[in-house]
From TrEMBL:
Keyword terms of this UniProt record: Cell membrane, Leucine-rich repeat, Membrane, Receptor, Repeat, Signal, Transmembrane, Transmembrane helix
The protein's name: DRT100 protein
Taxonomic path: Eukaryota, Viridiplantae, Streptophyta, Embryophyta, Tracheophyta
Organism field: Hibiscus syriacus
Signal peptide per UniProt: none
InterPro entries assigned to the protein according to its UniProt record, in alphabetical order: Leu-rich_rpt, LRR_dom_sf, RLP_Defense_Trigger
Family: Belongs to the RLP family.
Length: 162
């Protein structure tokens, strides 16, 4: 497939899963209207050529469980609204060109079990709020430009199973 994701996809208001992996020909931005699909729980566009940014409205997707935008060409910052995804269990933004800091309230994602943010250009400190994530089993922040110490409390998290 070559081209972009047409905004008409947003007319599928009962859509629960959108998976378009590794097509490489899908370029441009993801339509911002995707964030208005209230039933969309799985959004997986790994391995395409999406560019620019993650829509700021991504935080409106309260029912999202799985967000995978790894292996694209996303630039700019991780939107701070991402911390509003209260049901999110899996987040993979690895291998992009994301810049800026990890949102300070990232630890608000209490249901998150996997946070994969490796191979970006993220800067700043590792947020201490990560120590509030009691379901987090996989955290990959490698190959970024983060500085400072790993919060000591991070190694003391008691992981709860679900």
């Amino acid at each position: 497939m070559i081209g972009s994701i047409h905004p008409s996809i947003c007319q599928l208001d009962k859509l629960t899963t959108l998976i378009i992996p590794d097509w490489k020909g899908i370029a441009g931005d993801s339509p911002p209207c995707v964030t208005a699909l209230l039933n969309l729980r799985v959004f997986d566009l790994i391995g395409n050529s999406l560019i620019r940014k993650i829509p700021e409205q991504i935080g409106n997707k309260k029912n999202s469980l799985f967000l995978n935008l790894a292996d694209n060409k996303l630039t700019r910052k991780i939107p701070t609204s991402i911390v509003q995804l209260s049901s999110l269990k899996h987040l993979d933004l690895s291998n992009n060109l994301l810049i800026g800091e990890i949102p300070a309230k990232f630890g608000n994602l209490k249901m998150l079990t996997r946070a994969l943010l490796s191979r970006n250009q993220l800067t700043g400190m590792i947020p201490t709020s990560l120590t509030n994530m009691y379901r987090l089993a996989d955290l990959d922040l490698s190959l970024n430009k983060l500085r400072g110490q790993i919060p000591p409390q991070l190694g003391k998290i008691k992981i709860e199973s679900w």
